[in-house]
Structure to design on (134 residues):
């Protein structure tokens, strides 16, 4: 990401990045004892910020168990617990915001853990959604 993606305090301007850059920023690059494993974002996206390629990419990673950071908006006073957070969970959170016509992040913190049933639901939704776009 280039420097325009960050404010002077190192917060990510989420409206200046794409979904692949966001997921790359969420990846935990090293584990340290005192790391919070949280990224702080500034602003939000437009509700329609994802295109079909973005959605296909997100669906392709919904089963990823790669550990990642939680998202905390600058206005939040609550620090989420990133224990067990995965790229798959974050991808589902992004897809759910899109499905509900919401900007992202659609909460003060994004750190939701999902069960296997949600993965199946998202994959089924995608199969139907893709058909309706053809």
């Amino acid at each position: 990401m280039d420097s325009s993606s960050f404010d002077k305090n190192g917060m990510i301007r989420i409206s200046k990045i794409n979904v692949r850059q966001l997921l790359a920023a969420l990846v935990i690059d090293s584990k340290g004892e005192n790391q919070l494993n949280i990224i702080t974002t500034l602003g939000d996206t437009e509700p329609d910020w994802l295109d079909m390629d973005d959605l296909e990419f997100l669906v392709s990673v919904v089963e990823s168990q790669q550990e990642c950071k939680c998202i905390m908006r600058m206005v939040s006073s609550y620090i989420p617990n990133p224990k067990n957070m995965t790229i798959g969970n974050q991808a589902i959170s992004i897809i759910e915001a899109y499905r509900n016509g919401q900007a992202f992040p659609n909460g003060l913190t994004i750190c939701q853990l999902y069960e296997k049933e949600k993965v199946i639901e998202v994959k089924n939704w995608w199969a139907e959604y893709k058909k309706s776009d053809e």
Summary: The chain has a mean pLDDT of 90. The CA atoms of residues 53 and 59 lie 10 Å apart. The helical segments are 19-26, 52-60, 87-99, 116-133. The chain has four helices and four strands.
